[in-house]
Write a structure and sequence with these properties.
- By secondary structure, the chain is of the alpha/beta class.
- It has a single domain, classed as Leucine Aminopeptidase, subunit E, domain 1, CATH 3.40.220.10.
- It has 5 helices and 6 strands.
- A 6-stranded mixed beta sheet has the order 1-6-5-2-4-3, sandwiched between helices.
- The chain is globular and about 40 Å long.
- The structure holds ligand AR6.
- Ligand AR6 binds next to strand 2 and helix 1.
């Protein structure tokens, strides 16, 4: 699997799937979640509501999929990152689950390219360095015959710098 780093807006990425840092309501919010729903249109929210009606809320660490609406991607994989509360062990495991479950779901959809934002490092205040380490570790550990390329999309300079260093190692 090839790993790429891009600085920018994930809604502009032409990948088979982009990942959304959602919340357990699946009904939208701020940050990257707000950007994806705004740019992708109502179809994404409609499918999120259908999922809610079917299974209830999405638990932290889990992932669900919808259409990407009018975005250049095919799918949006919505995963719910942990809110940082200082419990490093528990939060790290939950964040690792986000990457694993998103990648598993992507594989089941025959996704070849997938783009991740820096889950939990915005409104959910997860320390960026630790989150970057977890993201890169999980992606490197995930052996896939299906997924060919993983793109880390960093929005802020600090995350870009962290990922650049991690991916040089
Ligand atoms: N493209 C790529 N990355 C982005 C974009 C974008 N357009 N916009 C922001 N980021 P956050 P969280 C980065 O806050 O911490 C929402 O309200 C941002 O710089 O979007 O997981 C949800 O509904 C940061 O590095 O998500 C939840 O309630 C990263 O995306 C809550 O926020 C994640 O920041 C989730 O919080």
């Amino acid at each position: 699997m090839k790993i790429e780093l891009i600085k920018g807006d994930i809604t502009k990425i032409k990948a088979d799937a982009i990942v959304n840092a959602a919340n357990s309501s699946l009904l939208g919010g701020g940050g990257v979640d707000g950007a994806i729903h705004r740019a992708g249109g109502k179809q994404i929210l409609d499918e999120c509501i259908e999922i809610r009606n079917r299974q209830g809320k999405c638990k932290t660490g889990e992932a669900v999929v919808t259409t990407a609406g009018s975005l250049p991607a095919k799918y949006v994989i919505h995963t719910v990152g942990p809110v940082w509360n200082g419990d490093e062990e528990k939060s790290s495991k939950l964040l690792a689950n986000c990457y694993q479950n998103s990648l598993r779901l992507a594989e089941s959809l025959d996704v070849k390219t997938i783009a991740f934002p820096n889950i939990s490092t915005g409104i959910y205040r997860f320390p960026k360095e630790l989150a970057g380490n977890i993201a890169v570790d999980e992606v490197k550990k995930f052996n896939s015959d299906v997924i060919e390329k993983i793109i880390f999309v960093c929005f802020d300079d600090e995350n870009e710098e962290i990922y650049r260093k991690l991916l040089e190692e």
